[in-house]
Structures are given as C-alpha cells and as structure tokens.
Write a structure and sequence with these properties.
Blueprint: E1 4-13, E2 16-25, E3 30-34, H1 41-49, E4 56-61, E5 64-65, E6 76-79, H2 91-101, H3 106-119, H4 135-147, E7 153-157, H5 165-182, E8 185-190, H6 193-199, E9 202-207, E10 210-215, H7 217-222, H8 227-232, E11 237-243, E12 247-250, E13 253-256, E14 261-267, E15 272-288, E16 291-298, E17 301-308, E18 322-327, E19 331-333
Parallel strand pairs: 3-8, 3-9, 6-7, 7-8
Antiparallel strand pairs: 1-2, 1-4, 4-5, 9-10, 11-14, 12-13, 14-19, 15-16, 15-18, 16-17
The structure holds adenosine-5'-diphosphate and magnesium ion.
The site of adenosine-5'-diphosphate has 10 residues, from α1.
C-alpha cells in the first residue's frame, strides 16, 4: 500500500488551468475525483500516470518522487471508460498481456490470470472474445487486466459511464469489494455524485481546474464549504439571510447561527420536517419511490422538503394548504 501525493501541480492550456496545491490519497484509500465534465479529472489522473507532464509540481508515491519515472515503471493499473480491450485476443490473452510484456514465466502467468478472473467473477470466460461479452463483462475484464500486474496504485477513469444503471450499481459494489480485499490505493474518477458517495472513503470535488473541497461523503454532503459543492452533491436549500442577535428567520422558520450579519444557511431537503402548522404554503409536490418531495413557499422563498410517505401527518389526497416546517440539521456556507 502506498500513499499518492500531488504537490504544487500547475498545468495550463490556452483556455484551461489545472491548479492543485496539494492532494493526496492515503495508503489503501479509495479516493474519488468528482466534478463536471471538463473540470480536469482526467488530466489529474494522466499526471499521476505520467502520460502528462505538469508545468510545475511533483507527484510522489510514498516518499518517492515520480516525476521522471516513465509510466510503465510506475506500476499502476488503469481502467478507462471505453474498455479498451484488444478485440483480436481472447479474455485470457487480454488479461495476460501485461504479464507477458513483463516477461513473467508461463505457469506464473496462468496462475495470476485465473486469480484475477476469479476476483472479478469471470472464471470460465478465458476463451471468449471481447465481442462475445456484455459491456459489464468487458469492464470486468478491463479491471482484471489492471489488477493482474499487482499494481501499487489503481486508477479508474469513469469506468461505469458506458453501462446501464442496474449493471453500474452492481459493478460499483464489486469494485469497492475488490478494492477492500486487496487494500490497494485507488483513485476513481466520476461525474456521478451518487456513485461517488456510494463507493468512496473520501471525495475531492473539482471545479474548473481546482479542488473545491475534500472530505468523506457525509462531510461533503452535510457540510459543504461552497455552494458549488452543495449543489453538485444533490438537491439543496440555500437561504441568504441577515442575522440579528445570533439568529436568522425566514418567517416563522428560525436558525440560531451564533453570529450577526449576512449568512448563507444550507440544508438538505431530507432535513426539513413537515408538521401541522402555518409556516409555509405547499406550492407543489412530486411522488418519488416511497417518498414525497414538496416545494413550500415561505415568505416568497421556495424550500424543498423530502420525506418518506409514512412520515407526514397528512393523507396525500387531503393535503392542507399551509403546513408547519422545521429544519433539524443545517450548516453555514462560507
Ligand atoms: N492535450 C490537451 N490540449 C489542450 N487542452 C486540453 C488537453 N487535454 C485536456 N485539455 C482541456 O483541459 C480541460 C480538462 O479536461 P479533462 O481533464 O479531460 O476534464 P474531465 O476529465 O474532468 O472531463 C478541458 O477543457 C480540456 O479541453
Ligand atoms: Mg475525463
């Protein structure tokens, strides 16, 4: 297990600058780079691999400076979005390829390929060709091919983006299990916040070439430092209000903030509780699987609330016009 560290990385093209003063994946950690398309996730991975040479800064594996170590000597397993399997080779040969290049003896290759196939649940598929496999199976082969070289670091760049929802969910669970089992330091790239939350030890949220915040999924979800992080991780309520004597109110809905002046109050829809009362007016609602999402107007500001159906004290067929609103968990942005 090795720690991966970026220090003072700068890289620029005409209309894009990547600027990462410090970023690290701890030894054995599952770190995800999460951000919208074009924010610099792939470039960051390419710098770690050594495909891209930054204008400034250093890449370390443990205490070892990697800047001048060529990609093939960095001992990294990589999985891309488009499986990138060799179409004319069967599954066995696809997985064995990296070992043959490394001149590993034949019987050792066989042992390791079988081990990798078992790991990804594809034992018995050795003789198939890529075109005879589903997208999910092809991506399992790509994962086996990355792991068979026993890399010290595993990098995955949107490995599930080309698969449909059901398979994506199953495979992300598998990736997580395998990562745990091997304890391999992993950096995973995605633009899908749900995937990032489900799979990661920590997430680094990226925006326009910068890391906006890094933390555990729950830290980022309930205590975002910026509006961008808040919005990117899911539905949010953000109220800009003026606090007086340590307290801000939107109509009857009050928050103790312990400071005065302008504040941005942040809370998730599921932190909003609905009860009997007159705090706000239900403008509309949507039914979701097992849940209901309200839009509630309080003094001209719309608040989103989400509850399980079983939690609201009214029948949906007979909703009152006005309801009581309570917020159980909030944080202050900025
Ligand atoms: N070789 C390159 N030459 C010029 N611009 C590039 C190059 N590689 C990436 N970029 C630019 O860098 C930005 C970030 O790209 P990328 O790292 O691929 O983002 P992401 O993976 O988050 O979608 C984009 O604006 C892209 O156009
Ligand atoms: Mg990318």
């Amino acid at each position: 297990m090795v720690r991966v560290r970026l220090e003072g990385i700068k890289m620029s093209w005409e209309d894009f600058q990547l600027d990462i003063p410090h970023l690290e994946a701890k030894a054995g950690e599952f770190l995800t780079l999460l951000g919208p398309s074009g924010c610099g996730k792939t470039t960051t991975l390419r710098i770690i691999v050594g495909f891209e040479r930054p204008d400034k800064g250093a890449v370390y594996f443990g205490e070892k400076l990697m800047n001048h170590v060529p990609p093939y000597e960095r001992n990294i397993g990589i999985v891309f979005q488009d499986y990138a399997l060799f179409p004319h080779m069967n599954v066995f040969d696809n997985i064995a390829f990296g070992l043959k290049v490394r001149k590993i003896p034949r019987n050792e290759i066989e042992k390791r390929v079988i081990w990798a196939l078992e790991l990804v649940g594809l034992k018995g598929f050795e003789k198939r060709y890529p075109e005879q496999l589903s997208g999910g199976q092809q991506q399992r082969v790509a994962l086996a091919r990355a792991l068979v070289i026993e890399p010290q670091v595993l990098l995955l760049d949107e490995p599930l983006s080309n698969l449909d929802a059901k398979i994506r969910e199953r495979l992300r669970g598998e990736i997580k299990r395998i990562q745990r089992e091997l304890g391999i330091t992993t950096i995973y790239v995605t633009h899908d916040q749900e995937e990032a939350m489900a799979i990661s030890d920590r997430i680094a949220v990226m925006n326009i070439g910068k890391v906006e915040q890094i933390g555990t999924p729950l830290e980022l979800y309930y205590n975002p430092n910026t509006e961008f992080v808040a919005q990117f991780l899911g539905l949010s309520n953000i109220l800009e209000l003026r606090a007086v004597e340590g307290k801000v109110c939107l109509g009857e809905l009050c928050f103790n903030v312990g400071r005065d002046g302008k504040v941005k109050i942040f809370f998730r829809p599921e932190s909003v509780y609905i009860e009997e009362g007159k705090t706000g007016e239900i403008v509309s609602y949507e039914l979701l699987p097992g849940r209901i999402r309200f839009r509630i107007d309080i003094e001209g500001t719309i608040i989103i609330a989400e509850r399980f159906l079983s939690e609201i004290p009214f029948s949906i067929k007979n909703l009152p016009k006005r309801v009581g609103v309570r917020v159980k968990q909030f944080s202050i942005i900025g």
